[in-house]
Design brief:
This protein is of the alpha+beta class and 262 residues long. The chain has 2 domains: 114 residues, no CATH class; 136 residues, no CATH class. The chain is built from 2 helices and 20 strands.
Amino acid sequence: MISALYTAASGMSAQQLNLDTIANNLANSATAGFRGRRLQFEDMIYQNLVTPGAAQSQQTISAGLQIGLGTRSAATEVIMTQGDFNQTNNPLDLAIQGNGFFQIQRPDGTIAYTRAGSFHLNNQGTMVTTDGDQLIPDITIPPNATSVTITQYGVVNATLPGQQNPTQLGQIQLATFPNSGGLDSIGSNLLQATLSSGNAVVDVPGGNSGMGTLQQGYLENSNVDVVEEFVQMVLAQRAYESNSKVIRVADDMYGQTNNLIR
């Protein structure tokens, strides 16, 4: 009876983390390039009252008698479905159609990855994120450029005064991973590679490695399905409520047992 208290408590703790994950998804439902997360559960150890496969006699083998001791949160997986596109008509806004991440140089020298393609120019004319981190490879646009075009294959061209033909300024590259769901979210719309995600595979947009293409003048919205998140929130609430009722019933049964001595 006492084990039921701890088993149900583990279920309540797991559902609390599940609700925290759902809340973060909903909070970022309007964040460009955001990738929702899904909490994964696993059962805990079992108490073997009768070991499965134990011989009860020379002719019979026991099916076993085990009591589970609850659940726990195992991992959160990044969901990599495509988000909807939002047309902005900003020439430095880029959306990725298909697989791939933009590569970002962080201030500490490490490389991070993002699907949020809202880029700007810093005081040197280099394309940077909203936080000022540089896009890799560096793309610098002259201040006198009259127009900037970025092809679906990542080629950046600019029209300069006195020139009839556009000047190529650089080539944007994207990165993919063997397991994108294993990336580590570090905030600011950035992800980092981990042992679970594997090493980055870098290629040009539309390359032979299955990389997606770019759409200039668009931003990718969050891939969070608000309706689905509300459904999951209701399920988490009901699971939490069920576990709390188990604790209440176990407490009542324990109280009845104590009253037997009176």
